[in-house]
Amino acid sequence: MPAPIRLRELIRTIRTARTQAEEREMIQKECAAIRSSFREEDNTYRCRNVAKLLYMHMLGYPAHFGQLECLKLIASQKFTDKRIGYLGAMLLLDERQDVHLLMTNCIKNDLNHSTQYVQGLALCTLGCMGSSEMCRDLAGEVEKLLKTSNSYLRKKAALCAVHVIRKVPELMEMFLPATKNLLNEKNHGVLHTSVVLLTEMCERSPDMLAHFRKLVPQLVRILKNLIMSGYSPEHDVSGISDPFLQVRILRLLRILGRNDDDSSEAMNDILAQVATNTETSKNVGNAILYETVLTIMDIKSESGLRVLAINILGRFLLNNDKNIRYVALTSLLKTVQTDHNAVQRHRSTIVDCLKDLDVSIKRRAMELSFALVNGNNVRGMMKELLYFLDSCEPEFKADCASGIFLAAEKYAPSKRWHIDTIMRVLTTAGSYVRDDAVPNLIQLITNSVEMHAYTVQRLYKAILGDYSQQPLVQVASWCIGEYGDLLVSGQCEEEEPIQATEDEVLDILESVLISNMSASVTRGYALTAIMKLSTRFTCTVNRIKKVVSIYGSSIDVELQQRAVEYNALFKKYDHMRPALLERMPVMEKVTTNGPTEIVQTNGETEPAVLETKPPPSGLQPASQANDLLDLLGGSDITPVIPTAPTSKPASAGGELLDLLGDLNLTGSPVSAPVPQIAQPPFLLDGLSSQPLFNDIAAGIPSITAYNKNGLKIDFTFERSNTNPSVTVITIQASNSTELDMTDFVFQAAVPKTFQLQLLSPSSSVIPAFNSGTITQVIKVLNPQKPSEAGLKTVIQQT
């Protein structure tokens, strides 16, 4: 059989291939020749064939059929064969294949070989692909080589020990005695690998970490010698003595000094020396400085040293290398919470990074800029961030807008500045803001009573002819609907008022309705605003009626439903329209976790929420009733219908109930009819003179439902003579404090199978010193189980 071609010739031939198919053909032809040679047990050219096979493996072609040939080469006595065999084993074998166990004995023999280079090959192979079984079997030989005087073998044995510890952590103590002596070695290779071994042991075992903390002075001495040593051609890299060893020692010091005062104190001086003496003109010096900064920030270092570290990061921000600037921004972002004032000194440099062309640097600079915002610099920082929002790429706008909203809410110096800032964001990047931006701004505007005229005027001017920013148009429509009278009257004192007529305001809202850029939600805002203006404007009511009636046949179901309901207000309930469309009260933020008190209700322990702020008006708005339903369990509760005040005509109350009945308050689909329950007698017998109730019902004793903070509420129970399913609860509220309790409101909710009626209380003020009481009657109908009832309550007072 002719001699196979050499590796160099194979490489030259493969490189002449013009196409992938041609190269694949050459590889297949050579693989066939190699297989034939393997079958013939050709020992002469086995080494050459395995070498060619490894080259093919590097090109991505399958070479697994050469695994056993690698084992044969390892068993050979020739060094050249062993070298290729061990290289092939490291590339073609791993611990997932059982074949690798066959070489355990060969590695053990080679670890005890008389030639250091053969021992080095065995150590490299074991440290590269040794399985846990191999590591257990050969750990003793590795530990022996750690104690040898040959520095070439000691550095390879140290790296092999790192692999053994990773595979079998319980063998760590075996290497402890030998590891202590490695730091006394003068050879830098041995020092480097010993520091790697120490780092691995400290990271994996708290006991080892505590044990090796006493080596800190020795590590400090080694690092100092590296810094103070003169030029050494063997270890010099760009004028710095062995930067790789310096970086490794700094990492180990960081681990040893973490959460330890004594170790941190011992390394403070050397860290300051490294930070001040390291040359920064080359990348090598920057790498050492970066590791020094990380070490300073991670240990319990002195405050002056931390400021020095942050100043180093500040110098990194001025570097031309983008990678160094990115690393600096990332490190500053991690330290800004602990060393805020030191980072603030570099604020202008950080803001300049917002103009960088690299998007990664831009994003880190934006995040760090938001972290630096506080009450003292909020105006300047917001100015820079708003300028950034104008010019940044679309992928930054959403995060930037959210950050500006949060910072403005937290640090706003005035409500006017807060409103102006959010309006600027909506004008610039309205399409990118979060969904909660619109209700949050509406709430802010509502709560800023003195800014209503200024805000509605600014919003009116902002949307003149531009409806592209939908959130801005939604807020503007809502404000014009609420405060359109202030816009027309020109009552703004903050700036020169604009002259807008009622027709001009309606023209804007109608343009929003017909604009192709308006979303369905935006049109809903505009139609509701037009409806509200029917109670704010005096000369354009007929025009408003026409607009509303037009959208009663809209193909948009939402608009159609709104228009139909508003038409019903105009036609059937026009006398109620001013009350229903009156200006919204001051809104309060809903907190998910409020203070709770435990009260007794119907003999069961139930949580009730006490709010000390008064309700905005005598009648609770629908949203507050819905909040109560959500609080008390959601789908199992029916809405509460408060009784109309006695001063109103009876027909008005009925009309209000009819109007609200069309709104499907239970949340059921409109198309699915809800089974109707017969109307209980007490809803119709309000004017009857017939006695309906007997004495206190047997078996239902009076209870004290609430008694805390001076407020006491007692429940007494009666049954109806005409309908035994009706239970009448009379509440009596008394006040033992020194001050009167005003705006007292009592709310209740029951399961859907019940029906509930709350009569008006005798008063809304509870006199102090128990000098008087408030009484209120609650009627509960339980058609299924007259003997059982469930009631949940919410009480408000000030």
UniProtKB/TrEMBL annotation:
> What is this protein's record name?
AP-1 complex subunit gamma
The UniProt entry, under Pfam families, shows: Adaptin_N (PF01602), Alpha_adaptinC2 (PF02883)
Q: Where is this region: Disordered?
A: 597-619
Q: Where in the cell is it found?
A: Cytoplasmic vesicle membrane; Endomembrane system; Golgi apparatus
Write out the GO biological process terms: intracellular protein transport; vesicle-mediated transport
Q: Which family does it belong to?
A: Belongs to the adaptor complexes large subunit family.
| InterPro entries noted in UniProt | Adaptor_Complx_Large_Subunit, AP1_complex_gsu, ARM-like, ARM-type_fold, Clathrin/coatomer_adapt-like_N, Clathrin_a/b/g-adaptin_app_Ig, Clathrin_app_Ig-like_sf, GAE_dom
- The primary site where this protein sits is membrane
Keywords, A to Z, come to: Cytoplasmic vesicle, Golgi apparatus, Membrane, Protein transport, Transport
Q: How does it sit in the membrane?
A: Peripheral membrane protein
